[in-house]
Amino acid sequence: MAKRLISILMFLLLASCGTRSSTPPTLDLLPRLAVTPALEAWVASSLTAYQDDHGPLEFTVEVLSFEAALEAAADGDVALVVAGWEPPSDWFSALLGVEGIAVVVHPGNPVRNYTLPDLAAVFAGRLRSWDELGWSEGIVQPVIPLPGDEARRRFEDVVMSGEPPTGNALLAPSTEAMAAAVAADSNAIGFMAMAQPSENVRSVRVDGVLLGESSLADGRYPLWLEVIATAPQEPAGALRDWLAWVQTPGEVEGE
Fold first, then answer.
1. Do domains 32-98+226-246 and 100-225 have the same CATH topology?
2. What CATH number has the domain spanning 32-98+226-246?
3. Which of 13, 71, 118, 146 falls between 20 and 30 A from 205, CA-CA?
4. Cα-Cα-Cα-Cα dihedral of 216, 225, 65, 181, to 10°?
């Protein structure tokens, strides 16, 4: 009887050990920063410089549309949104800087300067051949960002004056896709928010002014958008430290 009791107790002990969870305690999630596709390069450039000064990031970064980012922030899934759109009026917001919108062509394209009316005609489809701009007889291939992109909205406001882009334009869902599309076609021309020049495309002059730090700072370059951070409430901790660093004059290249 005693042996049977000992056997039962050992069985119960082993069974309880077998059902005990081996899952480690859940780690606290790092705060999340959401950035829109148009400003992904701007944020990436900023974070690279920030890590050089402060070490590894203590928050994560993901790319979301502005609408998705606002929804995630409202639900508490994202602690901060960086975008080029006007934030909700009752949310925390901070101006982080400006981002230039580069007009880019294939490196083999010799046309180096475009007036704003030239660009309007090109992207509306009224100017269809490069020989109208003094180059070849090739057909101009406009490439534009997706609807809802901040760079596209700003370009349409400044350049197009309400005229819609041509239906023959190719759509690029990201700055990387824009650069790739223009680099692959000698007749292509596009525009994108660009924190750092791409080696595969050429940034051209607009109204005689080349995009650069000084031309952005003094307002001579006409195509740019504001970089705005927003959240339902002011972030704390690592994200607040990054915001303070970004807003310090001279810290972010291009400001």
1. yes
2. 3.40.190.10
3. 146
4. -60
Helix (H) or strand (E) holding 60, with range, is strand 60-63
| CATH number of the domain located at residue range(s) 100-225 in this protein | 3.40.190.10
pLDDT in tens, the chain (255 residues): 444 433 433 433 444 444 444 444 333 589 999 999 999 999 999 999 999 999 999 999 999 999 999 999 999 999 999 999 999 999 999 999 999 999 999 999 999 999 999 999 999 999 999 999 999 989 999 999 999 999 999 999 999 999 999 999 999 999 999 999 999 999 999 999 986 667 899 999 999 999 999 999 999 999 999 999 999 999 999 999 999 999 987 665 444
Q: Locate the domains of the chain by residue range.
A: 32-98+226-246, 100-225
